[in-house]
Design a protein that fits this description.
Shape: elongated
CATH topology of the largest domain: Rossmann fold
Oligomer: single chain
Helix content: 25-40%
Radius of gyration: 22 Å
Number of strands: 18
């Protein structure tokens, strides 16, 4: 089948590779523009890196909505289908109407729950043990199109890197399994129940900031959900500290204020939260690499009562 693929991150690259390995004709790959990294070196998206190695033509629109020439390009290709996975742009209706079999999307939740920009992070934040992948036919709404297939995945206790890997593999398999049913007309299209719809908002840098005036369970979820970006972070004596691995402990009888260090061990330290305690095992100080709590404690003298705050 002649397919145009749209996607950007590693999750999308897994789906693209699965399509290539399945023998589909990938006529064009669309991905987000290159970005500048350290020393102004241009960085390709994982999808572009894969497409280049496979000799597939790549297009990188700034905005499909504002650049109609890309719609013209797609009309010339006349794809049977457009497959989308975490592309990062709204696809206008004129493009949705081009392929004869429509545009399908690999969405990182079990729709209609967690429509929107951050379904995987939000699943972690909400304490969900199970989420999954939905293959849906795209329409003009925000993840409102008809559902074609689903697969559930266990994410209990996982951080965003682990969840992304699990869902990327599941999504790639499901995409390849679903396309033949779309092609031969046996796919079943199920409308979403609007009464069950929930939404995953766009994540902001400030969402990671915490002063520990929240339950330990909530903060531990933030640490796992935001491990890649924006991270869960706070300030100790004016220095930013990012947290990466922690364990929730039951409340004990302590008079420390929220954010205070209330226990120090050889390879951990414990922070008082509004409810419960958070035992920290890994963090990163501003300007340094990620390190174990043991290394952190050997390089910085901490005292009981030292307090993490939400400002410098």
């Amino acid at each position: 089948m002649k397919i145009v693929f749209m996607g950007t991150p590693v999750l999308a690259a897994k789906s693209l590779k699965a399509l290539i390995d399945a023998g589909h004709d990938i006529a064009l790959v669309m991905t987000q523009p290159d970005r500048k990294g350290n020393r102004n070196k241009m960085i390709f998206s994982p999808v572009k890196e894969l497409a280049v190695t496979k000799g597939i033509e790549v297009a990188q629109p700034e905005s499909l909505k504002k650049q109609p020439e890309y719609a013209d390009m797609l009309r010339e290709i006349q794809p049977d289908m457009i497959a989308v996975a975490a592309f990062g742009q709204i696809i206008p209706q004129e493009i949705l109407d081009i392929p004869r079999l429509g545009c399908i999307n690999v969405h990182g939740s079990l729709l209609p729950e967690l429509r929107g920009a951050s379904p995987m992070q939000t699943a972690i934040l909400e304490g969900m043990d199970v989420t999954g992948i939905t293959i849906m036919k795209m329409d003009a709404g925000m993840d409102t199109g008809d559902m074609i297939s689903k697969v559930s995945c266990d994410i209990k206790g996982k951080d965003i890197t682990e969840v992304s890997e699990i869902l990327a593999e599941a999504g790639a398999r499901l995409l390849v399994e679903t396309i033949p049913h779309i092609e031969d007309g046996t796919a079943v299209y199920e409308k979403q129940d609007e009464s069950l719809a929930t939404y995953a908002k766009m994540i902001l840098k400030t969402d990671g900031l915490t002063d520990f005036n929240e339950p330990a369970e909530i903060i531990e979820r933030k640490i796992r959900a935001y491990a890649e970006w924006p991270t869960c972070y706070s300030y100790l004596e004016g220095v930013q500290v990012k947290f990466f691995r922690a364990e929730v402990l039951a409340e004990d009888e302590t008079d420390f204020a929220a954010g205070s260090i209330c226990d120090i061990g050889k390879d951990y330290y414990t922070i008082k939260c509004s409810e419960g305690l958070l035992k920290i095992y890994e963090q990163q100080i501003s300007g340094k690499k990620r390190m174990s709590a043991g290394d952190f404690l050997r390089g910085r003298r901490l005292s009981l009562g030292d307090r993490f705050l939400a400002e410098k």
